[in-house]
């Protein structure tokens, strides 16, 4: 690497002043790496962008149909702005003068967090994760400057954020929202994404492995979200200034549809530049493959629990599963507070629509059923990523030493299946328990606990279908497993969210297993769909386990 | 004498690429068998078929008397494997990986584990992501050597090791041979095979082209002989099995250089002796020459 860079630098030095020669050496090969990154992300990034645009557009369209006129906007804003747990979760409705002001309160801060998460994942994927696999070493030995991988990653991710923001703005304008507000909203998302791309760039230099870098940046993101939550929900407004400490809060401070403050975007841009410069400084200082945080020594012998494939699988899934469990517990704990508020503020027309969407129960039950449908999809996201770990273990070569022992393929696959399906069941139990307790308290109704646990349990069969689909794809179409299973998750999510709004035919919406899940607690429980969804799930799992035994392993 | 490994007519295709093309391989119980060939010749594919990771498209494969595809689990209790490219879980320590793989195989001798860690100077408390390629390979090697098995399958086991560690590895393989363990050692490091192997099989483009002891294989090639003699030896050109490379004046005598088949050695020495030998050097063929003979005529295409 040194020779290549030196030669490059030396060639350039003849023609240009020294500083520019050095810079060209450091960034040599950036263009090629950008193309490589775009090639690798050609599916992932467009799908993510589509999900974000669809979420914003879907949200705007559904609020537009539920709240058609100015009085209903005012009522909605009023009820959100007086409820501390809604404020903590979503943030304040800043203006009820237009539809845009109220339409996006649910996805503004929340969406910004997910754009931030996407940026973190992408930056780490193209920097630290590449170093972990040793590919950077290979690239570094060609004419690639030391800073080129980071520069390429930032170009790709910042570009992704910008495109995501602009397409979101375009989508919102297309649904009939005000153009300036839409642009401010989209760029607000993009800005938060860019800041966390910068945070991830620094974290990728500080941590010594990809997971560590994602974790560090993720903590920063969580802190930013909680800070703005504290600011938005402070009772007397005395903590409002805290929102300015949070890049997630900045996306709200841009005030889309509420007298846009464009200069706040500059704040985000400035911080992104500062973080990027810091990351480039760090790249030039550290060794390839090393971080600034040292590795601690670990156990010299394996503990008793690490004696078989299940112990190994738990060790590999532990961190992710516990993080999800915390998220589910947090989500469940606020459900009660959110729902208690719903009962008070919706008019009869809206009620009729909600009942149509959610079943025939009371308004609260309809609302809860909608929440559980969401939680069901979330659970499927967890289950699919856990099941895909089997394929990941195979392609990274970890399966080879394992399967050279007495471990059979079926037991190996089953260990990851257990983490996926068992983990999903545990998450739903945690969600059901915490939601049950918070609802029981909010409504002073102890039967809520049982009803919420039931609503949670009934989500499992549809999740099982996706687990089975993922395992079957891993066995029968290994190269396409990831695309097939994530494609199914996104398709089912969109069918459920946008299907009714786009008035899709029933058969199309019925393609999603989640369309058949009884909408507890709004609807009655019924055995047939639960039983046949379970049967389909188990059938796919069976196909997967048998197929996995029969094919060549990579 | 039973066969630990008995492969006949093994064929394996990857799409349009034929990786193994009627491969025959016999490894006798208790021997150290070298499996030699250039990159892409099909060594790793063969090992992966023997491990039941890949399914044979045609041919019969017997491993320790069983079918590696059908009896995978039972057979794997009796063997240990060192992959050519050792990939380990980055967040586990070397010691944890050793114990985990040992327990999955059915037990690891703790005393041998400790002795081997010492011998190979491996720190078991390090996370495997911090290991170099050589150290990752040592984890797999220590695991295989510390297990109490009948058969070791080693895929280029020393490719990341330094010379000191290579020497330690050879000592350990010698000890295994003494205990009656069968070893299949895939390699393109020829000195290693020369030092360790009872028999070798040479694989090229998915076929075994030569198999036998090194002594037997030397019969198949020629020894280079250089002799300084007083006068031009008579009848050299007529001798079957001898090819004269050069006869030229050297000092006040004659220098003769020729290539000779093993069977013609005796006759050659008699003729040379008749011409008054002053100095004689004879170089046995190295495995490099064996290789050259098999690969020099056609360029070797490397298939992944």
Task: Describe it.
- The complex is a heterodimer of chains A (554) and B (304).
- Chain A is globular, with a radius of gyration of 25 Å.
- Chain A is 76% helix and 0% strand.
- In chain A, helix 11 packs antiparallel against helix 12 and helix 16 (309-345) runs antiparallel to helix 18.
- The model of chain A is unreliable at 1-21 (pLDDT under 50).
- With 554 residues, chain A is mainly α.
- By secondary structure, chain B is α/β, with parallel strands linked by helices.
- The longest helix of chain B is centred in the middle third of the chain and has 16 residues, at 163-178.
- Residues 298-304 of chain B have low confidence and may be disordered.
- Chain A binds chain B through residues 132, 208-209, 211, 295, 297-303, 306-309, 311-312, 315-316, 396-398, 400-409, 550-553, and chain B through 48, 51-55, 72-74, 76-77, 79-81, 83, 85-93, 95-101, 103-106, 123-127, 129-130, 140, 143, 153.
Secondary structure elements and pairings:
The complex is a heterodimer of chains A (554) and B (304).
Chain A lengths: L1 H14 L2 H9 L3 H11 L3 H23 L3 H12 L2 H7 L8 H5 L4 H19 L1 H6 L1 H6 L7 H27 L4 H28 L3 H24 L13 H7 L9 H23 L23 H37 L2 H11 L4 H33 L3 H5 L5 H35 L3 H11 L2 H17 L4 H22 L3 H4 L17 H24 L4
Chain B lengths: L2 E12 L2 E12 L3 E5 L6 H8 L7 E6 L8 H5 L2 E4 L11 H12 L4 H10 L13 H14 L4 E5 L7 H16 L3 E6 L2 H7 L2 E6 L2 E7 H6 L2 E8 L12 E9 L2 E9 L3 H10 L2 E7 L3 H9 L9
Parallel strand pairs in B: 3-7, 3-8, 5-6, 6-7
Antiparallel strand pairs in B: 1-2, 1-4, 8-9, 10-12, 10-13, 11-12
Helix pairs in contact in B: 3-5, 4-5
* SSE run of chain A: HHHHHHHHHHHHHHHHHHHHHHHHH
Global mean pLDDT of chain A: 86
Uncertain residue segments of chain A: 1-21
Helix count of chain B equals: 10
Q: The biggest beta sheet of chain A, please?
A: none
- Runs of chain B in which pLDDT lies below 50 for 5 or more consecutive residues are 298-304
Strand content of chain A: under 5%
Number of helices of chain A: 25
| Category from helices, strands and their pairing of chain B | alpha/beta
Task: Report how far apart the termini of chain A are.
Answer: 31 Å
Strand-residue proportion of chain B: 25-35%
Strand order of the largest sheet of chain B: 5-6-7-3-8-9
Q: What is the number of strand segments of chain A?
A: 0
